[in-house]
Specification:
The structure holds two protein chains of two kinds. Helix content of chain A is about 25%, strand content about 35%. Chain A contains nine helices and 20 strands. Chain A has helices spanning about 45-50, 95-105, 110-120, 135-150, 165-185, 195-200, 220-225, 230-235, 325-330, and strands at about 5-15, 15-25, 30-35, 60-65, 65, 80, 155-160, 185-190, 205-210, 210-215, 240-245, 250-255, 255-260, 270-275, 280, 290-295, 300-310, 315-320, 335-340, 345-350. Chain A has a six-stranded mixed β-sheet with strand order 6-7-8-3-9-10, sandwiched between helices. In chain A, β12 (about 250-255) and β13 form a beta hairpin. The longest helix of chain A has 18 residues, at about 165-185. Chain A is elongated. The mean pLDDT of chain A is about 90. The longest helix of chain B is centred in the N-terminal third of the chain and has 34 residues, at about 90-125. Chain B is mainly α. Chain B has a two-stranded antiparallel ribbon. The chains are: A alpha+beta, B mainly alpha.
């Protein structure tokens, strides 16, 4: 299948600052893609370049078989939703949704019909005559979504659409967007800095940092097999422990030799990444002594922060204990315990 | 997928699966350096070029011509700072510097203290008649600065009704200048201080009370610091207005020379343009200094107030309320006395010999060959300035705020828009003479026309309009144009359907501001009018100069009355228009 959107070696710089370098990506029709990364990583710039709101300095963008690299936004085919809603404040909700349709020369009746359909879809059937300022933030964002989709664009671009909303509203709107996206089968790209949001919504996540792509993959892929230390740290929680390589090119942690594949690195040090839920308190052959410093109740689990006893780093190690296992463990601040790690869950990264 | 260039299999795959046939390496290496340019961008580019050119011609080049002229002799040869040395070496001339600064310092002290108390009364007490006081306090802003000067003559002149109050001192000179300018600058100070005092955060006062802080300590630790930036701003604005004003010292300055009148004397009296340029440069210095200080302060002020502030509601306090009522009444009465005296004087048939009231002085044709023409010219000029000026100012602000200009260009436009605030009218007017009257300048055809008066007045009052427009535009969501583009709506349509209606109140404010100022201004236009385009404010000055104080007062009162009518119209008719376009604000 031909990709719907192809991005090739895209680059952009502002003066000496390189905002994006060598970005390549293909997006299939109907896919939901999330650009995920910390602020300043270039994700919004990339989205704006796809929209034609920023100029490309390098590379090409193809959409649906057409080279759109240097087309102005009005000649491209997309709908966009911004974090700030950006509704036309002096137009009613119905006029906001119908502005684009009306501009295309559709008849008044046709526009009205389509607008009413959209009002039903977003669950605001009676809000047509209202002005945006009379709606809540979540409602305004739904109107913005309807406005962006009213012209049936081939591509939907969402620039942090949920970031300005309350937690509860955010999750509800998240579901609305996903349902609508699947129903319409519209290719969608969303920018977010919220990894939880990205994992819940996206078919594939593009993790970005410092203007380049760190990893592209399904949410599960990214979580289970982070390609770099950055991805491991940004997506989900991760403990990082320093390990050594011995003369046999084996990794050692706290004088224990681990049977892990070693990256082709000549460095003596490696970084071992272990997620808190992959650690557990139990006696075992390779168990390590720790002392519990602090317990944090999180609902379905308890996060224990432990400091190593007689080995390893000064950094605290986080361990997630499922709530149903807690009773048997007798954990309390100051207690000494044995920490066991299973090798299959350890990610090895080169030391910096 | 993420980095196919590092993965050989991915690379070979990519060649076979690439959608567009011409997308392999040659296309990859070709850089598309051109940004996305559509029709909208071209239109925008042309508009921006026009705006930049306009600002260069109407502001930058006249000022540069003026600066150049101050270091050239009459043949245009460079003579360095010779004229400056000559000016400073001549005590008869250079004493004006001291005079100007002295008048500035005295008026600023008086006006800032009085207007602070007045504004405090309006915002922090429950004294009665607050709306009335507000109107009376702002009244002088509608008058040309010549009006209080003429009033001073009627009140304290040699035949004045209250001359005894001066105990033998003459009103001509510093006393007249101080009183006249105190009247005229009062509303400008009041406007800033009312705003500064009303943006205070009620939560701070609640906190102070809960800690048992005394009222005096509350005032010095909360009220004053919160109004600090407003106070500094007021000081610079009043000081600039005083040192650059021309009308009051012209009429009532007597032998007390100040820089603004010196420029006029050098240029209009002695045709010594170079010396006029030298004094202009000297006058620019304090004005620019005040401008820089104010600019710094404005920047800081933005950081001071949070969006979560709670409005302060003053409590009743009979003693405090009564005291401020008394004070505001006194100030209001003084303002009314000045305005009333001008009106009365204009109605007296022939002061002081025939005190019968009549419309005699309003028969301008009896006193001047121009008759009523200056008044009609002023109306015409104010009308054109309001329309054209508002349009130009709004388009400029729109481009600064909304288009993705290179930062250098944006900065340039912004500085050009802010600069007029620091340029005294006399200086701008003189710059216009030098630039537009230059041999070989094709724009010379504008010289002596109504157009140059409109252009000059727009340039002179650009800054306040620009700031008003910017504030209004900043309230619009930033991505409106981008959304419009994604909906295939042309930018001009989005502008007409959204940006323009949302900004209607601001546009109306700018138009009224320009209209009133075009009506009352004297300083810049005094160098630029011709016999066909004589203006009302200039004719006030000329008639007063010719000893026709009565008709001069009549014309000044006419200007004030017209400005007042326009303002009242703005408040009533404007409200109707706003109800139509601003429905969306009520929620």
């Amino acid at each position: 299948m031909q990709p719907f959107l192809t991005i090739e070696s895209l680059g952009k710089s502002f003066g000496d600052f390189t905002a994006l370098k060598e970005i390549s990506l293909s997006v299939n029709k109907g896919e939901f893609i999330c650009f995920l990364g910390p602020s300043g990583c270039g994700k919004t710039t990339l989205l704006r370049m796809i929209a034609g709101l920023e100029a490309c300095h390098q590379g090409e963008i193809w959409q649906d078989g057409t080279r759109i690299t240097s087309l102005p936004p009005e000649q491209r085919d997309f709908g966009i939703v911004f974090q700030s809603y950006a509704l036309f404040p002096n137009l009613s909700v119905a006029e906001n949704i119908g502005f684009g349709l009306k501009n295309q020369g559709q008849s008044k009746r046709e526009v009205e019909k389509r607008v009413n359909e959209w009002l039903d879809i977003i669950g605001l059937p009676d809000s047509g005559p209202k002005f945006p300022s009379q709606l809540s933030g979540g409602q305004q964002q739904r109107v913005a979504l309807a406005r962006a989709l009213a012209l049936s664009p081939g591509l939907l671009l969402l620039d942090e659409p949920l970031s300005a909303l309350d937690a509860k509203v955010r999750i509800r709107l998240r579901e609305t967007i996903c349902k609508l996206q699947r129903k319409l089968g519209i290719t969608t790209i969303m920018v977010t800095h919220d990894q939880e949001e990205a994992m819940a919504m996206a078919d594939r996540i593009v993790v970005m940092n410092h203007g380049h792509i760190e990893q592209t993959g399904t949410p599960e892929d990214i979580y289970k097999h982070p390609a770099s230390r950055f991805v491991a740290e940004f997506v989900g929680a991760m403990n990082f422990l320093e390990g050594d390589t011995n003369s046999n090119n084996q990794i050692q942690l706290a004088n224990q030799t681990l049977s892990l594949p070693v990256a082709e690195s000549t460095a003596r040090k490696v970084i071992l990444g272990i997620r808190p839920e992959d650690l557990s308190f139990s006696e075992g052959q390779s168990a390590l002594p720790v002392s519990v410093e602090n317990l944090e109740f999180q609902g379905s689990f308890v996060r224990a922060e432990c400091s190593p006893v007689g080995w390893g780093t000064e950094r605290l190690i986080k361990v997630d204990v499922p709530i149903h296992q807690l009773a048997a463990l007798e954990l309390e601040p100051g207690s000494l315990n044995q920490l066991s790690l299973s090798e299959k869950h350890i990610h090895v990264f080169p030391a910096v | 997928m993420s980095s196919p260039q590092y993965d050989e299999s991915a690379l070979t795959m990519s060649i076979s699966t690439h959608t567009p046939a011409d997308a392999d390496s040659p296309a990859l290496s070709r850089k598309s350096l051109l940004p996305a340019i559509g029709k909208d961008q071209w239109v925008l580019g042309l508009v921006i070029a026009a705006v930049v050119l306009y600002l260069i011609i109407t502001l930058l080049l006249p000022l540069l011509s003026m600066l150049a002229r101050s270091v050239q002799d009459s043949d245009g040869a460079f003579i360095g700072l010779n004229y400056f040395a000559e000016y400073l070496g001549n005590p008869a001339l250079s004493q004006s510097i001291g005079n100007t600064l002295k008048a500035g310092a005295i008026v600023t002290t008086i006006v800032v203290s009085l207007s602070f108390l007045f504004a405090y009364g309006l915002t922090r007490t429950q004294m009665p008649l607050k709306p009335l006081f507000k109107v009376l306090g702002m009244l002088p802003i509608l008058a040309p600065s010549l009006l209080p000067a003429i009033s001073m003559i009627y009140l304290f002149g040699n035949q004045g009704v209250a001359v005894d109050l001066l105990f033998g001192h003459s009103i001509y000179g510093l006393p007249g200048i101080v009183m006249g300018l105190a009247f005229w600058t009062f509303p400008h100070a009041l406007l800033i201080l009312t705003t500064a005092l009303s943006t205070s955060d009620a939560r701070l006062y609640e906190a102070a009370r809960s800690m048992g802080t005394s009222p005096f300590r509350t005032f010095t630790t909360i009220t004053l610091p919160a109004a600090k930036f407003g106070l500094i701003s007021t000081v610079t604005v009043v000081f600039t207005l005083v040192v650059t004003d021309f009308g009051v010292p012209k009429v009532i300055g007597g032998q007390y020379n100040v820089l603004a009148t010196d420029i006029y004397k050098q240029v209009a009296g002695q045709q010594n343009f170079a010396m006029g340029a030298v004094i202009s440069v000297l006058l620019l210095i304090p004005a620019l200094l005040a401008f820089v200080i104010d600019h710094r302060v404005q920047k800081k002020q933005k950081e001071l107030f949070g969006a979560r502030s709670v409005n302060f509601e003053p409590e009743r306090n009979p003693v405090k309320d009564g005291l401020f009522f008394l004070l505001c009444s006194l100030i209001s009465l003084a303002i009314l006395a000045v305005v009333g005296m001008a009106i009365y004087g204009s109605l007296v048939t022939f002061w002081p010999w025939n005190m019968a009231l009549s419309w005699n002085n309003y028969h301008f044709e009896k006193f001047s060959a121009n008759g009523w023409e200056p008044y009609l010219n002023s109306l015409e000029m104010a009308f054109y300035t309001a329309i054209a000026g508002t349009l130009i100012i709004f388009i400029t602000a729109y481009n600064v705020e909304k288009s993705k200009l290179p930062p250098i260009l944006k900065h340039f436009i912004h500085i050009m828009a802010m600069l007029p605030m620091a340029v005294p009218g006399m200086v701008l007017g003189l710059g216009y003479i030098f630039f537009f009257n230059q041999a070989g300048n094709p724009l010379g055809i504008l010289y002596g026309t109504m157009a140059i008066l409109v252009i000059n007045t727009t340039a002179h009052y650009f800054t306040v309009g620009h700031l008003t427009a910017l504030t209004a535009l900043k309230k619009l969501p930033a991505e409106i144009e981008q959304v419009a583009a994604s909906l295939k709506i042309p930018q001009y349509k989005a502008f007409l359907k959204v940006s323009l209606p949302v900004c209607t109140p601001a546009l109306l404010d700018i138009a009224i501001y320009l209209f009133v100022n075009a009506l009352t201004t004297t300083s810049a236009v005094v160098f630029l009018y011709s016999t066909d385009t004589m203006l009302a404010s200039v004719s006030v000055m000329n008639m007063e100069d010719a000893g026709q104080t009565g008709p001069a007062a009549a014309m000044a009162v006419l200007i004030l009355a017209t400005a007042a009518c326009v303002k009242i119209g703005h408040m009533t008719l404007g409200k109707l228009l706003l109800n139509r376009t601003q429905k969306w604000k009520r929620s």
